[in-house]
Design a protein that fits this description.
- The complex is a heterodimer of chains A (about 650) and B (about 300).
- Chain A has about 650 residues and is mainly alpha-helical.
- Chain A has one domain.
- Chain A has helices at about 1-20, 25-50, 65-90, 95-115, 130-160, 165-185, 190-210, 215-240, 250-260, 260-275, 285-290, 295-305, 305-325, 330-350, 355-375, 380-410, 420-425, 425-440, 445-460, 465-490, 505-540, 545-550, 555-575, 620, 625-650; strands at about 55-60, 125, 585, 600, 605-610.
- In chain A, the strands form 2 sheets. In chain A, strands 1-2 form a two-stranded antiparallel sheet.
- In chain A, α18 (about 425-440) runs parallel beside α21 (about 505-540).
- Helix content of chain B is about 70%, strand content about 0%.
- Chain B has helices at about 5-40, 50-60, 70-90, 95-115, 120-150, 155-160, 170, 175-185, 215-235, 245-265, 275-300, and one strand at about 65.
- In chain B, α5 (about 120-150) packs parallel to α11.
- Chain B has one domain (about 5-300).
- The relative contact order of chain B is 0.14.
- Chain B starts with a helix and ends with a helix.
- The chains are: A mainly alpha (about 650), B mainly alpha (about 300).
- The interface between A and B is large, with 63 and 64 residues.
Chain lengths: ~650, ~300
């Protein structure tokens, strides 16, 4: 238990220390040492897990006072934060935020004093295979992003040198974020889970608004308001579950097994909370808006933490979906429909984007949608696919975000059009990006394996409509990644190499992430065998044995074929790429080229440089239109499901 | 290893070797017949049936030139993955794996065109991406539909030799029509030969292949032959159910389908890309998806 406690507390302590430290060097030492310690502790926990298995922690036996103290401390912090949000909302004239804060925190306090205090929570903390996977993602990728941020924020401060240095605050938020994430993945007590959930909401609010421009402030409030809606749903879910004398996540799942009718309303509310945090339509705009923040924020929000909290919760609930998915009005259907629509529409919207961070943002929203679809099936194959997607998406997307951040600082733009000839200007960075992009959508890499598993599991989901959405969405995905990949591969003549300007910290984070992406693609069958499959067996209790689990998964021979293909695809470029003894000729420019691959002889004998632009298909995939369709469709689904549940609840009582 | 296992492995190995050796010969021959038929349709006499082979041999002797040092690598990888994709098909592996691997092979070709940074090649590459986006939903729908009617397995060997169900075509006529429709895109035939065409009069210089020459172009041609054979193999899956009669019918239908594509090629001019995308998706949604939903509900019952 001490490891779990220290994993939650250590990042918080480092965060406070970073808030107090002012010097560049001290901050660097502290952040790097803290990161290494957090990463090492996560790995240590993994080792412990492999020797002694899953654990639950009962605080009541001999730490009853401690548990009580933690409860009160959390409540006090919640009240303070609610007051802060209320005041900020009034100050910035965002009254909706104030209203939501004034609604949910008193509700929660009232619940705790009336019902909550009478419910005995047996196991407040736990860890299982999924917590371990998440802990590794947070502990390794999260901390790599923090290290990367050291270099990045130096540049950032340099670009904004006329402003006060608020980096202590920035790093405080980053590390606090990590602490809250650990809290989410280890809490079995729903009230604690809710507390950490709200902390991530607050951290992201401050991180998005970090630059304090008008746009940043507006976007940060949008993120806050949308996530407070999710928080409100969370509180209502806790109240509903609490009325049945249960306040534990595991207890909720057990309840689903024998009284599915009772758990349907709270499950739906929790899924709703997860959907807001995972930026699913109609809430996707907060994540797009979060792109104004410094890039490490985007990477942390998108790849390893914030958005993963949402899918984590939905994935935890997945076994309960299987029990309730027989009716159309169920939490699983809500997750699948909203996730499916979001996957399709966000993938389409990504085509029309030329801003690299927005492409990544839409791709993130889409992939989270796919994860939620998989979890929504409540099937073993779906859970496998969802877990694998979480792993691969976390490593690959963080790599891509950080690559874009580095490119932005060195070429002065985050537009894909300006990355022309990046292969000549920053060859190593371009190579890293190529690895990341390929890993996102090509066979035999991990994301695609998971997508394949997702398709197979969806066939059994009794929702062929969602299957079709995924089919079309994945075809669209090929297009937008393909054209970006092409842009990276283009070899443009006579470009100056400028990659020596990149900071050491950035290279070390980027390099580690590339190594992680490749390692994940090669070793994932082992991951599947040691962590993901045991996880699935454990969550289904006695319903599933090891043998019949295999019927739900991709055959192991398929996984080995993928591994071999990965090895081939990695080896080939090392052996053959760029080695040609052919005579190099200029490209064809309709006979008017000037043989330097850059210019042609235009009219009036004027030398003209040509430039190539990508294809955005505005007529088809205009961002506004895709969002509008997605929002209308998802709102309809939500209205249908919520009104049906409300009808049942208020007619029959829960 | 039991005797049975050994036998099945040997069978798979034989199928794969046969594919690697004979597919280019058969594919080249089909291309020759294609040109002959095309010529006759246009009132010409046409080249000898073996002309594609002469062409490739001639390409191999051309002066080795290229526009940059990495383009050939990508074309080579494209050929390699095309062969691997075909091997997966004839080894009877998962149909989905086969489709994804085909995408990777095509992506290498797109990468080769992009790497040249040539305006004409890039337009071709983008159009190739568009074509992929247009045909892929229908291919996936075909795979899922075959899965549903062939005893819930994606393994091509299970689908091809599944004896307990009638041939796929009986339950999947709509999917079959949809698949034939997007086959025109895959065979690079008019009206959908947007990224590269055999008809010079409607081509933007030479599209995707503008910057390829000599051996590189030869590799591309051979990759094409490999590809055409396993695409016809996909058509065959709609008919095969392990009996000799259906196998014969399947082969005949494959040849008819090829003839149909040649015919379509000759009576159409290239259409705009909008038409390719719109029509392919509409066909996938109507013929493909509706048929798939019918077999889906037949299997899992009406209630969602």
């Amino acid at each position: 238990m001490s490891i779990v406690f220290s994993l939650i507390l250590l990042p918080a302590v480092v965060a406070v220390a970073l808030l107090l430290v002012k010097g560049d060097q001290a901050r660097g030492v502290l952040a790097i040492a803290g990161s290494i310690l957090i990463g090492a502790l996560s790995i240590f926990l993994t080792v412990r897990f492999f020797t002694s298995g899953s654990m639950t922690f009962n605080l009541n036996e001999n730490h009853e006072e401690l548990a009580e103290f933690i409860g009160y401390a959390m409540m006090a912090i919640e009240i303070i934060l609610a007051v802060v949000i209320f005041a900020l909302g009034i100050k910035h004239k965002k009254y909706l935020a104030s209203l939501l804060a004034a609604l949910q925190t008193p509700l929660m306090v009232w619940f705790e004093f009336s019902t909550g205090k009478n419910i005995e929570v047996e196991n407040a903390l736990y860890y299982d295979q999924l917590s371990i996977i998440m802990a590794l993602i947070i502990g390794i990728i999260g901390t790599l992003i923090c290290v990367y941020a050291l270099g990045y924020m130096k540049d950032f401060q340099h670009h904004h040198h006329d402003e006060a240095d608020r980096r202590p605050w920035f790093f405080f938020l980053l590390f606090l974020f990590l602490a809250a994430m650990y809290g989410i993945v280890f809490s079995n007590n729903l009230v604690w889970l809710y507390f950490f959930w709200e902390i991530t909401t607050l951290c992201s609010f401050f991180l998005i608004g970090f630059t304090k421009t008008k746009e940043a402030t507006n976007n940060s409030f949008r993120a806050l308001i949308m996530n407070l809606f999710g928080g409100l749903a969370f509180v209502l879910a806790i109240i509903l579950v609490g009325r049945n004398g249960v306040l534990e996540l595991s207890g909720l799942l057990q309840m689903a097994a024998y009284s599915p009718q009772i758990v349907t309303p709270p499950l739906i509310l929790l899924v709703f909370a997860g959907l807001t945090k995972a930026a699913q339509m109609p809430f996707n705009s907060w994540l797009l808006g979060a792109m104004v923040a410094p890039t490490p924020t985007s990477a942390l929000l998108h790849s390893s933490t914030m958005v993963k909290a949402g899918v984590f919760l939905i994935l935890k609930l997945a076994p309960a979906f299987m029990m309730t998915n027989s009716s159309l009005v169920s939490a699983g259907t809500l997750a699948m429909m909203v996730g499916g629509i979001t996957f399709l529409m966000a993938s389409c919207a990504a085509i029309s984007q030329s801003n690299a961070k927005r492409v990544l943002a839409y791709s993130t929203v889409a992939n989270l949608g796919l994860i939620i679809v998989c979890a929504g099936t409540g099937m073993p194959g779906g859970i496998w696919a969802a877990t694998m997607l979480i792993i691969f998406h976390a490593v690959t997307k963080s790599l891509l975000f950080l690559c874009v951040g580095t490119a932005e600082h060195n070429i002065g733009s985050r537009d894909i059009e300006d990355m022309d000839g990046l292969f000549s200007r920053m060859p190593r960075l371009a190579l890293f990006m190529i690895v990341g992009i390929s890993a996102m959508f090509l066979a035999p890499f991990g994301m695609l394996v998971s997508k394949w598993a997702a398709l197979e599991s969806l066939i059994y989901s009794s929702n062929p409509l969602v299957l079709l959405m995924v089919v079309f969405g994945s075809s669209v995905t090929v297009f937008y990644w393909g054209k970006w990949l092409g842009k990276m591969l283009a070899i443009v003549a006579k470009r100056e190499n400028i990659q020596h300007n990149v900071h050491k910290e950035e290279w070390s984070s980027l390099g580690s992430l590339v190594a992680l992406v490749i390692a994940a693609c090669i070793t994932f069958p082992a991951f599947s065998k040691r962590l993901v499959e045991p996880f699935i067996i454990s969550v289904y209790g006695g319903l599933l044995t090891e043998e019949n689990l295999q019927n739900f998964l991709l055959g192991s021979e398929n996984l080995y074929i993928m591994m071999i293909m990965t090895a081939v695809i990695l080896l080939l470029p090392m052996l053959f790429l760029g080695k040609s003894n052919k005579r190099i000729m200029p490209i064809y420019l309709a006979g008017a080229g000037l043989n330097d691959n850059l210019k042609f002889m235009g009219s009036m004998q004027k030398e003209t440089e040509f430039s190539l632009r990508n294809w955005y298909m505005e007529g088809y995939f205009a961002e506004k239109r895709m969002n509008l369709i997605g929002i209308i469709a998802t709102v309809l689904v939500m209205v249908y499901i919520f009104s049906s549940v409300a009808a049942v609840v208020f007619r029959g009582g829960v | 290893m039991t005797v049975m296992e050994f036998e099945s492995i040997m069978k798979i190995a034989a199928a794969v070797v046969a594919y690697i050796v004979f597919a280019p010969l058969l594919g080249g021959l089909l291309a020759g017949i294609d040109r002959k038929i095309t010529a006759r349709m246009q009132g010409r006499f046409g080249p000898p049936v073996l002309q594609p082979f002469y062409d490739v041999l001639k390409l191999l002797e051309k002066e080795p030139i290229t526009v940059n040092a990495s383009q050939d690598f990508f074309v080579g990888c494209s050929l390699l993955f095309m062969i691997i994709t075909g091997c997966m098909f004839f080894a009877g592996l998962s149909l989905l794996l086969f489709i994804f691997s085909l995408t990777t092979a095509s992506m290498f070709l797109v990468a080769a065109a992009y790497s040249s940074n040539s305006p004409y090649a890039q337009i071709g590459a983008e159009r190739e991406l568009l074509q992929m986006m247009a045909y892929e939903p229908m291919v996936l729908i075909a795979a899922i539909s075959l899965y549903l009617v062939k005893g819930m397995s994606f393994n091509i060997s299970d689908i091809a030799f599944f004896e307990e169900a009638p041939p796929g075509i009986i339950l999947l006529p709509g999917v079959f029509v949809g698949f034939l429709y997007i086959l025109t895109i895959k065979f690079r035939k008019s009206p959908f030969d947007l990224s590269m065409s055999h008809h010079a009069h409607q081509e933007l210089v030479k599209g995707l292949t503008t910057e390829f020459s000599g051996k590189t172009l030869a590799m591309l041609e051979i990759a094409h032959w490999y590809e055409n054979i396993f695409l016809l193999g996909f058509v065959f899956l709609f008919f095969s159910n392990g009996t000799i009669l259906m196998a014969v019918i399947g082969v005949i239908v494959c040849l008819l389908a090829y003839f149909l594509e040649v015919f379509i090629d000759n009576v159409n001019a290239r259409m705009k890309w909008q038409f390719a995308l719109n029509s392919a998706w509409i066909v996938a949604l109507t013929f493909g998806a509706v048929n798939m939903l019918v077999v889906y509900y037949r299997l899992f019952g009406g209630g969602v």
